[in-house]
Amino acid sequence: MSRVLTPSQTIGPFYFGTITNAYRHDLAPRGVAGERLEIELSLHDADGAIVPDGLFEIWQANSHGRYDHPEDRRNLPLDPGFDGFGRASTDTAGRATFGTIKPGRVPWPAGGLQAAHINISVFARGVLNRLATRLYFEGDPELAEDPVLKLVEPARRATLIAKRDASGVWRLPIHLGGAHETVFFDC
Hints:
Blueprint: H1 15-18, E1 36-44, E2 55-59, E3 85-89, E4 95-101, E5 117-123, E6 131-137, H2 147-150, E7 161-164, E8 170-175
Parallel strand pairs: 1-8, 6-7
Antiparallel strand pairs: 1-4, 2-3, 2-5, 5-6, 7-8
């Protein structure tokens, strides 16, 4: 009897059975302080085709610029109805939506403030480790001062900047590779 090795898997059979049970795409229920936003992320492969089975996680500060995290001990208000974390899978059109609030600015360790942003983690088939990126808001006057955005080659900064459409939804396409590849950060 010959033996054949079982092929490896990048994301095991646990993926949609475990991770998806913790979905939470509406981060800001009624009563949470701040400007309410709807965000739509879309996921595309290197050829621009949609990825219908990906997963996004977002993490952000509240409207006062404070993270709901034990290491954020700044004297800023916490909102008991807002923990700043959400998770959603892409649909058959490669999209995932989140209801949230516009985050406040947070400090940069070397000094100054970062522009309002949302941290995004991307999980997808063929991706062994999460990919980390950010969403900034088009038209935000603080973009020119943001220390992280300044580290990005000017021609590629647009891959991090969401645009607001006529219906008020902030949209950001995420490209895993190719000519329009999104800027991803080492974590």
